Amino acid sequence: MIDATDKKILKEVADLEGLPKGAYNIRKNGKLLGREVSANIKIETNEKGDGIFIDIKPDTKNESVHIPVILSQAGLHDTVYNTFIIGEGADVTIIAGCGIHCGGKESEGHSGIHEFQIKAGAKVKYVEKHIAIGEGSGRRILNPTTKIFMEENAQAEMVLTQLGGVDEAKRYNEAEIGARSVLLITERVMTEGSQMTESKNEISLTGNGSKSNIVSRSVLKGDSKQDFYVNLTARAKCYGHIECDAIIMDNGNNQTIPALRALHPDAELTHEASIGKIANDQLMKLMSLGLTYDEAVNRIIQGFLN
Amino acid sequence: MLQLQNVTFKAPDSKTKDKTLSQKTIVDDVSFTFEPGGFYTITGPNGSGKTSLAKLIMGINELSSGKIMFNGKDISALPINERSNAGVVYGFQHPARFKGTNFRDLLSISAGTDDEDTLARIIARVGVCSMDFLDKPVDGKLSGGEIKKIELATVIARNPKVAIYDEPDTGIDLWTIGPMVDLLKREQKENNTTTIVVSHNKAFLETADTLLLILNGKIAYSGNLKGAIPMLEDLSVCTFSKSCQGENDDRCYR
């Protein structure tokens, strides 16, 4: 049964008003809440019973899979291992994400360990959103791991979002990008109070003509802390770019450490990074269009994290 | 009617070590009345105080002394957004660039609606931006000319009573300056917009009903272009080395 809290979480993490159309797998407090498969998308519990195996047939087009996780059991720290096989020539969207509802003093946590095998010519958009709500004082912990293996001519776009509520998050992203394949990662994180996040990324451009663009947008409110690390390694003639920007609103603490490693003479790697307050000229511009100071700040942050 | 009454703006003098002890007067006891629907071009040498004066009107710079009256109301202490809501709008010389914000977002804020037809009508009215500008991110990738056109559109979209444009032609190609002048003139005539342009460009000097020549923070001349020509042709009025301390310290208070 889906209760009101579940509905709220599903709406927040997966923009769902109820059960989704098409294939889905909803996990609640470490157990299966609901599953639906389609002719082209198979979802099975893995052999160990600690996750799911999602197999998308070659040339599956315009289908989506929802795999949200709901956590509302005090003291539960759920770890799940999910494997995705995206068949050759497929073009699909995967909506993941975890919502924690904390109602008590005990901490709650989820570690989603996702592995993607993206076959030749396949295209996948992966949208992962993390939220935490509830009046409880227990810590809300989310530690996602994403491993991506791309064959040739594949495209993957990973949109990873965490906008408040999560006390502690340690993210690890790892990717190997094959010939002429393209990986785009956009990470958006907003922290407040004494929350902390750490994101570590190991991206390897292994095939000729491979490309990667890694974008990190961080907003730090209160005394929160965010650390962002990327190691972008080029092992072939390829192109890679890292763009990481952080806005510190109050007394936050941010480290941004992009590293470029060219292990091939024809590699082209670039990065840009900035940390600072909201630019004064942006505030002046929006206020000159009639917004109050607070409205201007909100619009700038909203756009920055968009 | 916009009235400047003994308006003065002082800023810390960059030459002195203790900024609290020494201040430089950037705008010096200026009084002037901008009549409704007039077209005014403010010009003068680099560092003379043109932009500082324009920013005082918008509230971007805070008055050191004096008063600004707008339609009989003292707006001297109003914040920028309240002046904007009262009808005073400002086009920046160096427009802000945003990450994650596109032209549609800015135009919607300015117009107070995101209705597609309304935005299309504004773009048609402005003329210098095409519809495909709408979804362009207003970020560092825009050319200098593109962002100035966007800036112009966001000012006009607010239907200002007083529109202040700080060097609107910077970065604009030669083929767009004429249409831009025509646009501002049209807005002035059709909407009775009091138009104040800070510019060195001959096209704006020629278009103005009234020219204000600023020297050392004061209005050295106000009137038509013909009367200003002797001063404009006198190269000695340039105070660059005095105001800006030459190339080694080119801090500019414009």
Molecular structure report:
The complex is a heterodimer of chains A (306) and B (254). With 306 residues, chain A is mainly β. Chain A has one domain (4-304). In chain A, 10% of the residues lie in helices and 57% in strands. Chain A is built from three helices and 21 strands. In chain A, the strands form two sheets. In chain A, strands 1, 2, 5, 6, 8, 10, 13, 15, 17, 19 and 21 form an eleven-stranded mixed beta sheet that branches. The two termini of chain A are 33 Å apart. The mean pLDDT of chain A is 93. Chain B is of the alpha/beta class. Chain B has one domain: P-loop containing nucleotide triphosphate hydrolases (Rossmann fold, 3-Layer(aba) Sandwich), CATH 3.40.50.300. In chain B, 34% of the residues lie in helices and 24% in strands. Chain B is built from nine helices and ten strands. In chain B, strands 6-7-8-3-9-10 form a six-stranded mixed beta sheet, with helices on both faces. A four-stranded antiparallel beta sheet of chain B has the order 2-1-4-5. In chain B, helix 3 packs parallel to helix 5 (144-156). The chains are: A mainly beta (306), B alpha/beta (254). The A-B interface holds A 217, 245, 279, 281-282, 284-293, 296, 299-300, 302-306 and B 58, 60, 79-81, 84-85, 89-90, 92, 94-96, 98-101, 105-106, 109-110, 112, 154, 158.
